[in-house]
Amino acid sequence: MSATEPRNLLVQIHVPKTGGMTLQGTLHRVYGDARFYFVQNPQAMSDELERFATRLAATPSLRMVSGHIAHGIAEAYGASGRYFTALRDPVDRVLSHYRHHKRKGWNLTLREFLETQGWGSWNVQARMLSGFELDDQRKGLWTGLPGTMQPADAYAERWSEDLTQRALDNLDACAVVGLTHRFDEYVTLLATTLGWPLRHRWYVTTNVAPTRRTERLDGSDLRAIWARTEHDHVLWRVARDRFAQDWAAAGRAGTASRALTRAASRVAGSTRRRKR
Q1: What percentage of the chain's residues is helix, strand, coil (to nearest 5)?
Q2: Is 231 within 8 Å of 167 (Cβ atoms)?
Q3: Beta strand pairing status for 79-87 and 36-39?
Q4: Cα separation of 39 and 37, whole Å?
Q5: Considering only Cβ atoms within 10 Å of each terminal Cβ, which end of the chain, N or C, has fewer?
Q6: What's the pTM value of the predicted model, to 2 decimals?
Q7: DSSP of 149-177, one letter per residue?
């Protein structure tokens, strides 16, 4: 690479509550300390991005960055990005995000979360894929702390349809698009596309709720979630179609590789539980 060419970076856009923490263990194993950087503190994102910029400038071997980061982060810091991400059913993702904060002690009803915590409720997937969040993250406006988040209406007022299209274009350009509920296939597609060694094609489930909540929501709650995930639903439909095509193209080789990933992941998970 010449001095005038941008560095090529792989970038995982980890949308909250889509399985990204589980994947990070695999990414760190594949790329190692010298080539991997985890932007790990969304509560102080501007500081985190400054540290990332310093590490990027000081570490020529750095090739992989992961975290709750927006599309465009590589280009913003003088590199060229090859992006990948996983999306989740928007209603399930919002509910998972809400329950995650409830377990942390936030005393909010679902409706209060939807109205006041736009960071976690208002079209999160579209915002991150469009790059809409990047300026907020660099300015320290994307904190994830109670009392500091912008309400959902504030995001709606700043949004425009061209941002939805930009998110769709960026999604289409991703090297791999996964679905949270098809995680084994997602890991398999990543391993095949990015050329991971067989010995690293496994994961250990991380940061998942101990039990899945199945309480019924009334119609007004569901309508409120849908009203705040309109653009995410557009991306979700496209992502499902893209994933179905990519997995079909993987054929028998993909099915065989998935079986290896599942078996290795079960062994790793069992080993981890026994050590606790």
Answers
A1: 60, 10, 30
A2: yes
A3: unpaired
A4: 6
A5: C
A6: 0.91
A7: SPPHHHHHHH--HHHHHHHHHHHHH-SEE
pLDDT digits (tens, 9 = 90+) for 201-242: 899 988 666 555 555 788 999 999 999 999 999 999 999 999
- The answer to whether the CB of 101 falls within 8 A of the CB of 120 is yes
- The backbone torsions φ and ψ at residue 178, rounded to the nearest 5 degrees and listed phi first, read -105, 170
Are 201 and 256 spatial neighbours (Cβ–Cβ below 8 Å)? no
Q: How far from each other are the two terminal CA atoms of the chain, in whole angstroms? A: 45
**What does the block give as tokens for 61?**
């071997």
User: From CA 84, how far away is CA 63, in angstroms rounded?
Assistant: 14
pLDDT digits (tens, 9 = 90+) for 94-134: 999 999 888 888 888 999 999 988 888 999 999 999 999 88
CA distance 211 to 220: 25
Residues 251 and 257: their CA atoms lie apart, in Å, by 10
